[in-house]
Amino acid sequence: MFTSAPPPALETEGLTRRYGRRTALADCTLRVPPGRVVGLVGPNGAGKSTLLQLACGLIAPTSGAVQVLGARPGTRLDRVGFVAQDTPVYATLTVAEHLRLGARLNPGWDAAFAQRRVGALGLDPKQRAGRLSGGQRAQLALTVAAAKRPELLILDEPVAALDPLAREGFLRTLIESVTELGATAILSSHLLSDVERVCDHLIVLAGGRVQLAGDVTALLDAHHRAPAPPPGADVVHGAVVRGPLPAGDGLHGARAEGASAAGPVRLEELVLAYLRDGAR
Questions:
Q1: 17: part of which helix (H) or strand (E)?
Q2: For this UniProt entry, which segments traverse the membrane (predicted)?
Q3: Kind and range of the H or E element at 154?
């Protein structure tokens, strides 16, 4: 029996969004396979939030096309969970009331999952959300988004305002939830250390345009560091080049001489090279 492959979690073609004369996103073409944890990175104003809002159906494109899980954005809200940058919760509602509200609004609500996550996080069901710490509010928002059992979780810089310990806890909960649900997650962040820790797919935006996209392992394999690239090398920026190491450069030198020698490129180096290239 033949089975059709699942559609991409997110697919865009020439996606563009303008606000008056300002172009927030330009000619964005992407294909995110299902089952990935995607890091969406770029400086402030790069178009990250615009792309995520288009994917959620919160705004409409100026031109181009976008599909989420094979459908038009906003048509299957039960399959998409969203956590905004300010991790919104209702200050006057208790943790338990958030879960009851989630159950009433989402037909596929998994009460057992929600209760288990609240217990594991040590959240007091009787505590009002307004009295929770920033990290606890972020965890509650993630729990509510994940308990609807979405196929895609979209998170717009949810850890930007959290301290390192709270951020680490949020990312751990995210990975645990995505693994249990078998979902795809798109995590917008400007913290490269967080992306490197949890993501296996990468999208780099700068100036409203896609600079780089693909599985992290494949992208790292396709780039190298060459401090003195020969003429004709495909240089991204600085010492980062696309393609194999230039003749005469080897991994032995990288190990012997440290980070400045020719050899594999680190994820942070790769991202910064494309961001600097996109800024020119």
A1: strand 10-19
A2: none
A3: strand 152-156
255-270 in b/e form (b: 16+ CB < 10 A) is: eeeeeebbbebebebb
Largest CA-CA distance found in the chain, in angstroms, rounded: 67
Q: Alpha-carbon dihedral of residues 62, 63, 64, 65, nearest 10 degrees?
A: 50
Domain co-membership, 264 together with 141: no
For 223-253, the pLDDT digits (tens) are 999 988 888 889 999 999 998 765 555 444 4
Asked whether residue 164 falls in the same domain as residue 199, the answer is yes
Identify whether the C-beta of residue 243 lies closer than 8 Å to the C-beta of residue 252: no
| Neighbouring C-alpha atoms within 13 Å toward the C-beta of 62 | 15
pLDDT tens string 153-197: 999 998 888 889 999 999 999 999 999 999 999 999 888 988 999
**DSSP of 78-122, one letter per residue?**
GGEEEE-TT----TTSBHHHHHHHHHHH-TT--HHHHHHHHHHHT
The total domain count for the chain is 2
Give residue 266's domain range. Answer: 222-278
Q: What would the two tokens of residue 100 be?
A: 């009851």
Which residue, chain included where needed, has tokens 């230039």? 246
Strands 10-19 and 22-32: antiparallel
Are both 147 and 93 inside the same structural domain? yes
Residue spans of alpha helices (H) in the chain: 48-56, 95-105, 111-121, 134-146, 164-181, 192-198, 216-221, 251-257, 267-278
Does residue 5 lie in a domain region? no
Asked if 242 and 211 touch (Cβ cutoff 8 Å), the reply is no
